[in-house]
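testing teh design pipeline on a random one, pls ignore if ur not involved
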């Protein structure tokens, strides 16, 4: 008997806020922190906390630099993170499409 599809889901990615972050990053090369924050309607502290979790797990890359005297934080999916997220989405589809036997 094969294991239930849900056993393959990453708990790091499965949090609603982290899932929304990864979903947004999936469609762009990179995005500014402020633009992502506005898009997802998350507080600065909550977005920072969730990004830290994703960065520690190697799913995203965070670059901080100065642009015309302003601090700018840019975010992007890491190459491995992009691949892992696609696998996660495939597994999620299996979960929601599975039939009761």
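output:
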């Amino acid at each position: 008997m094969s294991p239930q599809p849900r056993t393959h889901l990453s708990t790091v990615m499965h949090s609603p806020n982290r899932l929304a972050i990864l979903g947004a990053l999936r469609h762009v090369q990179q995005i500014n922190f402020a633009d992502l924050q506005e898009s997802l309607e998350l507080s600065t502290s909550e977005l920072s906390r969730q990004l830290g979790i994703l960065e520690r797990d190697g799913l995203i890359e965070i670059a901080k630099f100065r642009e015309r005297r302003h601090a700018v934080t840019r975010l992007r999916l890491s190459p491995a993170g992009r691949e892992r997220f696609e696998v996660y989405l495939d597994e999620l589809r299996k979960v929601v499409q599975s039939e009761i036997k």
